[in-house]
Amino acid sequence: MRLIHTALGALLLLLIVGSILRTLVVPRGLYSSLVNRLWAVLRTVLRLSATPFGGYRAQDRALTWLAPLVLLGMLGMWLGGMLLAYTLLLHGTSDFGWTTAIREAGSSLFTLGFASGERLQLSAIDFMAAASGPLVIALQISYLPTLYAAYQRRETEVTLLQSRAGEPAWGPELLARQSLVDTETALPQLYRDWERLAADIGESHSNYPVLLSFRSPQPNRSWVVGLIAVMDAAALHLALCPRSAPPEARLVLRAGFTAMRDIARSLRIRFDPDPDPDVPIRLTYAEYLGAVAMISAAGFPRERPVEEAWPHFHGWRVNYEAVAYELARRSDAVPALWTGPRDFRAAVIPPTRPTDRRPGAAQPPQAPRLPR
Q1: Distance separating alpha carbons of residues 176 and 70, to the nearest angstrom
Q2: pLDDT at 357
Q3: 168 pLDDT more than 60
Q4: Torsion-angle region of residue 358: left (phi > 0), alpha (psi -120 to 50) or beta?
Q5: Could you state, in order of their start, the residue ranges of all structural domains in the chain?
Q6: What percent of the chain lies above the pLDDT cut of 70?
Q7: Among candidates 189, 202, 328, 176, which has minimal Cα distance to 254?
């Protein structure tokens, strides 16, 4: 039995070290089943705790705690797993009972040193345990600045988007607002900014998936909703205005669905890497018509008839809709227009607009209250 305990301890230690390296060290977006299960359990508990209070706001308040709890849970899970692993190793390689073995392992792992003794054959295990505890804590501490730097870069652009695409963001709203205030010339720069942000998000969120759980400071903002909105605006722009649409619209679409697919691979979300343009999408033709009518009323020009533009818009959206909806669901994003269903019951929230009281000021047409 002691030989079995030694083998189990060595195996558990290897699993814990592998999880730490996959999560904190190796920059390849490797999948850690331990961390993923911890995230799933904590997310379920928080969502269920908010369910009796109803509505999206209750879910948002509860899920705000998901990211910090995952970070603390990761540290606790790794240290607890190492404590168990070293306890098994000490019990299996000596005549210690379970109480003495766990006391010895805890004394070494947390560098307390209260259970020292003259046992030369166990010194190697004690030294390994003494090195493991501080090393794991140091790696976790160095992990936090990387996360918060990526979070800050992301949220800066999401906040800037609020005045252009509403809150929560919506692609047609972005085009309508630019037309109303005659700032269509600003769209190429916006597409360039979000192309770079999409690349940044694809790299950071696939390498550190816990960033998906970091919510925006305001409940009606979300990075995934913002990215979907910019991509939808670019797709509509290219479909309706093929001659005058800037080339940056194509680039932001490519960068956007590439980033989403990189994140999907790290989370083991299945998707079609080369979908047929004729594959049905969940966004309906009626929703598309309502959005085009809204942006046309705001003065957005059209170079192609609405009916002819639909296959082109459909062909762009089929590349990212399924992955975008799944990321919005997993990140429990604000239920905005054109972003798919959620795991909690909540009404779709259209973008809010400030009212300009000046005489003769242009007011945007109301967004249609359409299904997700």
Answers
A1: 39
A2: 44
A3: yes
A4: beta
A5: 2-141, 148-330
A6: 91
A7: 202
